[in-house]
UniProtKB/TrEMBL annotation:
<dbReference type="InterPro" id="IPR029069">
    <property type="entry name" value="HotDog_dom_sf"/>
</dbReference>
<dbReference type="InterPro" id="IPR039569">
    <property type="entry name" value="FAS1-like_DH_region"/>
</dbReference>
<protein>
    <recommendedName>
        <fullName>FAS1-like dehydratase domain-containing protein</fullName>
    </recommendedName>
</protein>
<feature type="domain" description="FAS1-like dehydratase">
    <location>
        <begin position="30"/>
        <end position="167"/>
    </location>
</feature>
<dbReference type="Pfam" id="PF13452">
    <property type="entry name" value="FAS1_DH_region"/>
</dbReference>
Length: 182
């Protein structure tokens, strides 16, 4: 492979902004929102909000029935992980086809660390909602020098919708793709 210039790399990164992360958009949740999974989540995290667990309370609340914790949005649409071949997929636990960020790995930015995640919630998911998720690259920073090394902050946004297209919320997820300095 020929050496990629910084300008070539920047051009390839800029072309990703606004594009879907994978061609299989939107991703359909394998199951509708359901009380059993809400209960597992609530108990695992010791979040005993009665709107998640108590049918009578929830029915008489502003929600009108059991709702899902809003930060559970991502878990509803997660594909079952495939661990075999995870290294070859750059640490990604699902089949992604061609990795759109392979150009960073090819340029030596092989370190990956998650830096933060932010949620915007429009409404709580309700039992029975069939959720879809659509993920696009939102931004890719200029090259930055960090304590981990030199790299790029890559941010994508996932929009979660109901079967009727109503937006439930958005999640921004940021990673640093870096190479060790020195």
């Amino acid at each position: 492979m020929t050496e990629m210039t910084k300008d070539d790399l920047r051009q390839r990164l800029d072309a990703l902004v606004g594009q879907p992360i994978s061609s299989g958009q939107p991703v359909q949740a394998p199951d509708p929102v359901n009380a059993a999974m809400i209960r597992h989540w609530a108990y695992a995290l010791s979040d005993f909000n009665p709107a998640y667990l108590d049918e009578e309370f929830a029915t008489n609340s502003r929600y009108g029935g059991i709702v899902s914790p809003p930060v559970m949005l991502q878990s509803w649409t997660m594909a079952p992980p495939k661990l075999e071949g995870i290294h070859e997929r750059g640490g990604v636990p699902i089949e992604i086809g061609e990795n759109p960020l392979q150009c960073l790995a090819d340029a030596g930015y092989t370190g990956i660390v998650a830096t933060n995640s932010e949620f915007e919630i429009e409404r709580y998911p309700r039992v029975g909602d069939d959720i879809t998720a659509e993920t696009v690259f939102e931004s890719i920073s200029d090259e930055k020098k960090t304590g981990m090394g030199t790299g790029f902050f890559v941010t994508w946004v996932t929009t979660y919708r109901t079967q009727g297209g109503e937006v439930l919320g958005r999640q921004r997820f940021r990673t640093l793709r870096f190479k060790k300095d020195g």
